[in-house]
Amino acid sequence: MGKEEKQYWLLKTEPGEWSWEDQAANGGVTNWDGVKNKQAQKYLKSMKLTDLCFFYHSGAKARRVVGVVTVVKEWYEDGGGAVDVKAVGEMRRPVDLKEMKGDDGLKGFALFRQPRLSVVLVSEDVWERVCGLGGGYEGDGKDDHVQDQDDDDGAED
After folding, report:
1. Residue 13 CB contacts under 8 Å (≥ 6 apart), including other chains
2. 80 vs 136, more confident
């Protein structure tokens, strides 16, 4: 059996309804529900365990990627249906919508083409680019790599 490729997503939420702080304070786990749009529901149904999702604050004051969550439970019927996600880590620097729109490497990002959709598929190239703009996220393993270099005792191999 072939291993399925990891997929990447963007989940939008109004910070007044469910913020990154709420996600983190909730033990990091929540059910992502209340999605009414059929295309967005289709995307939720396509999510697999360990897929990664940008946690995006929408609304007038703060349109930005603020963190990363991972899928810990695939689609299940619970009222209108849901997936469960768990916080992985906060972006080292939030990435604003305006900054993303101004980046040539992000032309064609589905977030720009379908701005009202609350769940958006993200290509691996776009994922890497947005992570780069934000300096990565806590838990991406890059802190460990820097730490390993700092731990070098100066001994030659």
Report:
1. 19, 55, 56, 57, 58, 118
2. 136
Question: Kind and range of the H or E element at 20?
Answer: helix 20-25
| 145-156 confidence digits (pLDDT tens) | 444 344 444 444
The SS3 call for residue 96 is: strand
The kind and range of the H/E element at 22 are: helix 20-25
The answer to whether 78 and 33 are in contact (CB under 8 A) is yes
Q: pLDDT digits over 72-103, tens only?
A: 999 999 788 999 999 999 999 999 999 999 99
- CB of 54 closer than 8 Å to CB of 71: no
Rounded to whole angstroms, the Cα distance separating 6 from 102 reads 27
> Rounded CA gap, 107 and 91, in Å?
21
